[in-house]
Design brief:
Layout (H helix, E strand, L loop, with lengths): L10 H6 L11 H23 L7 H8 L2 H4 L2 H9 L8 H35 L11 H14 L8 H20 L6 H21 L7 H12 L7 H20 L1 H7 L3 H6 L4 H23 L5 H13 L3 H25 L8 H19 L7
Helix pairs in contact: 2-16, 3-6, 6-11, 6-14, 6-15, 6-16, 7-8, 7-9, 7-10, 7-14, 8-9, 8-14, 11-14, 15-16, 16-17
Length: 375
């Protein structure tokens, strides 16, 4: 299975037309996508900030977000990002800045990381059904995190590293299972489903080793993917790694375009295919690990978002990666609003909402493929 061609140019055209450079980013479809995603994000964020167990008026939200005690004091802003004391402010301001705003920021980073990771995996495998969730990377990262939370909680401060190790091990196992003098898109997907299923079974088995109900509840939130209870500590944990991962993904988008041409064509252009493939795989695994470390297993974002963006901006990864950076946060933020408010006061994990959206979409993509190729 290879990507379908959308728009006026495919990856081959983009490689041959390098003289256009990054002017390709000045694209009407990409601009409309960015604008639409921003509107969705702003509306969802405002709803997220206004409603909850402590509802606020629009005026209270605006007043709280612009409180001079916070926005006019660089020491307070630095304290939020670096850790520090919070000033005495009104209850509405405290709720906005300490509870609701960090949840939105974590959702932004989770959405962007998973969407970009999914786009990278789809380019590496040349298969639009690929994603961190489907390829077993999320399951491997989640299993590693649960082992730490339940069996060795002393390592909890190293969750991003632990998640990256688990995701890497799962991805290498997928490649080992799928390898038969090379790999095929279908074998990679089937191997990923096998590894993901095994990982999920092991995750369930870990509950028998949980020492108390608090640990069980924490573990359940990881398994389903949740932004409930996120704070500035998760923002501080994910922010530097997110900036690095997204920056490298944007810089590597040209290499993703070349990979879409196939191994022989990429090699003829001077690319060291295996080295580039594994380097980009490591980047996608790191982006997935960041998300798992702060929000658990939020499924199908890495599948749905790149495909929707591709249908709008085309197959050029210089535009596709940028589009995912906008669309991923919009999807996760909107899904989290539904998860938090749909059954209020009960809060659903955001992973349940993305799963309800992504599962049927995955089946739609499978039905759409007319030729699966040889197993």
């Amino acid at each position: 299975m290879t990507h379908e061609s959308h728009g006026d140019s495919g990856p081959g055209d983009n490689v041959s037309g390098v003289s256009d450079g990054w002017r390709v980013l000045l694209d009407r479809q990409l601009g409309l996508l960015a604008l639409g995603s921003t509107v969705v994000f702003v509306v969802a964020s405002f709803v997220q900030l206004r409603y909850g167990s402590y509802p606020m008026t629009p005026a209270e939200v605006i007043a709280g977000l612009t409180d001079p005690a916070i926005v006019a004091d660089p020491r307070v802003l630095a304290g939020l990002l670096l850790g520090g004391e919070f000033p005495d402010v009104a209850n509405s301001t405290l709720i906005l800045w300490k509870i609701r705003l960090p949840r939105i920021l974590v959702g932004v980073m989770v959405g962007a990381n998973l969407a970009v990771a999914g786009a990278i995996f789809q380019a590496i495998t040349r298969n639009e059904l690929a994603s961190p969730y489907v390829l077993g990377v999320s399951a491997g990262a989640g299993l590693a995190v649960l082992v730490v939370l339940i069996l060795v909680p002393v390592l909890s401060s190293y969750l991003p590293f632990v998640a990256a190790v688990g995701g890497t091990a799962a991805f290498l196992l997928v490649y080992a299972i799928a390898w038969q003098n090379g790999t095929s898109p279908v074998r990679l997907i089937l191997a990923g489903i096998v590894v993901a299923t095994i990982g999920q079974s092991l995750q369930t088995g870990l509950f028998f080793f949980a020492g108390n109900t608090g640990v069980v509840q924490t573990a359940l939130s990881w398994l389903t993917g949740s932004l409930t209870g996120t704070s500035w500590s998760e923002v501080r944990l994910a922010l530097p790694w997110t900036v690095l991962a997204l920056g490298l993904a944007i810089a590597g988008s040209r290499q993703l375009n070349v990979l879409l041409l196939g191994e022989q064509a990429a090699s003829s252009l001077g690319m060291r295919v295996e080295r580039v493939r594994f380097g980009l795989s490591a980047l996608a695994i790191a982006a997935t690990a960041i998300s798992v470390a702060v929000a658990g297993l939020v499924g199908f974002v890495g599948l749905v978002v790149p495909h929707l963006v591709r249908n709008i901006v085309g197959t050029d990864y210089r535009r596709l990666v940028i589009g995912c950076v906008f669309a991923g946060p919009a999807l996760v933020t909107a899904a989290d609003v539904g998860a938090r408010l749909a059954l209020s006061p009960i809060q659903l994990p955001v992973g349940i909402v993305t799963g309800l959206l992504g599962g049927p979409y995955f089946l739609y993509l499978m039905q759409k493929q007319r030729q699966l190729g040889e197993l």
